[in-house]
Amino acid sequence: MPSVPGLRSPYLKVGRLVYFGRMLDKIRLHARGALPVADYVANLGKGFDARCCGFLRLHYEELKTRTLAGDLNDEALLAWCHERGGARSDEDCEIWNGFMMKRGWRDASAEILARRIRESSLESQPIQTMFDYLDFDEGRDSVAIRAWEK
Fold it and tell me: How far apart are CA 81 and CA 74, in angstroms?
């Protein structure tokens, strides 16, 4: 996949959650026509987006509409999600973050991750998770900066 200006690493948190900010970026970039269609658009609202919305207990289309209204920043959108779907505890967020940051490492997604690494010719990179893969595939080195510790 290409490097997409304005699309952040899945490791970066909004509030207490990883990935949420990346999903918001994809929504906004797509609305502006700046999200590469071939690499991203077919999966909007699916995969990790669907998991994140499920965790927040709301529908992707609902979040998309609220995001595109344009009057809330990322933190306020997360607060809106908590108002709609219910607040998550610190433990809930810790479990969410751990699950997401390790996806592809010795789990049901390991085979998919291995295939994507091969398809992207990234076998020489120290990729262990889907988040690592996304970062390397988009030109970021999350491993060198130990992004999961931030």
Answer: 11
Q: How far is CA 43 from CA 30, 46, 126, in A?
A: 12, 5, 25
CB of 19 closer than 8 Å to CB of 48: yes
Query: In the chain, what are the domain boundaries?
Result: 13-149
List, for residues 42-94, the tens digit of each pLDDT value. 999 999 999 999 999 999 999 999 999 999 999 999 999 999 999 999 999 99
Q: In the chain, which residue ranges form alpha helices assigned H by DSSP?
A: 20-31, 37-40, 47-56, 60-68, 74-85, 90-102, 110-119, 130-137
What confidence category does residue 142 fall into, taking pLDDT thresholds of 50, 70 and 90? Answer: confident
pTM (2 decimals)? 0.94
Provide CB contacts within 8 A for 87, sequence distance 6+: none
CB 119 within 8 A of CB 113: no
Cα 130 off chain centre by: 10
CB of 24 closer than 8 Å to CB of 32: no
Are 25 and 6 in contact, with CB atoms under 8 Å apart?
yes
